[in-house]
Amino acid sequence: MRKWKIFIAISLCFFLSVKSISANRVASEHKNSDNISFHSKDTIDDNLDEKGYAKGQVLLHLSFPYINSFHVTPPNKHSITNTGLIGYSIGLDYCYQANQYVSISFSEISDLSSPIYFTPVLDEYEIIGSDYLISLTNNHHIRKLSLGYGFFFAQEYWEIVNHNYTIDGSGREPIKEVYNVIGLVFTSYFRPIDVFRVGIIYRPSFYRFNINPAIKYEHSISIDFAWKIPLRKKLTAANKMKI
């Protein structure tokens, strides 16, 4: 199931990026024409400038937190620290001020050792992962940088997978520990081009539900590659063109 989620996310990124670039080209041609007039009811998909987002703008957020580092303590286990690969995220951004916006997203990350999820994995392996069921952040856009802070609710899991265990009973017995946590999230992104971002996400958690001890520090750190696709843009006076 996760393979299909990642495949769909990659396809959406490619399709929407091409669509956004085409829309930007059309908008640019219109802005350079002396015979075109824009009105406030019109919508465009023009480039974001270094001053930030326009008020009222909505963006689709698609990203791949590709490199993930974990520090977790599963129930009845010692603390585990590991770094691996693969993840995806989808969400929406809404700009309520010229340089501030709120983001809501769903994410899933893991520490797989394979650089491509579709490649075969070992018959027996250990995996750590997090499903961030909801992440809500407030963000500040400063030229090509954006900084965010907020909170999340997530489902953490630690699992031993052994595909041969049911055949001959060799190796470690398969087991999976799942528990819910709440914590904080801090983000930092750099925008090298219009729709693409690269950033770091730090998610410390302190409270675990229905586990003893409930208060326990855990965290994940991700290097994220993100696409932000404008869905709606309100024209400002500076955007309007007159004959």
Task: Identify the notable features of this structure and list them briefly.
8-stranded antiparallel barrel, mainly beta, elongated, 243 residues, 53% strand, disordered C terminus, 2 helices
Amino- and carboxy-terminal Cα gap: 54 Å
**How much beta, percentage-wise?**
over 45%
Mean pLDDT: 78
Residue stretches low in confidence (pLDDT < 50, at least 5 long) are 1-51, 235-243
Query: How would you spell out the order of helices and strands?
Result: HEEEEEHEEE
Number of helices: 2
| Structural class assignment | mainly beta
| Residues in helix, % | 10-25%
Principal-axes shape call: elongated
Characterise the protein shown here:
The chain is mainly beta and 243 residues long. Helix content is 14%, strand content 53%. The protein contains two helices and eight strands; from the N terminus they run αβββββαβββ. The protein has helices spanning 2-31, 165-168, and strands at 58-72, 80-97, 100-112, 124-142, 145-162, 175-190, 196-208, 215-232. It has an eight-stranded antiparallel β-barrel with strand order 1-2-3-4-5-6-7-8. A hairpin with a 2-residue loop joins strand 2 (80-97) and strand 3. The chain starts with a helix and ends in an 11-residue tail after the last strand.
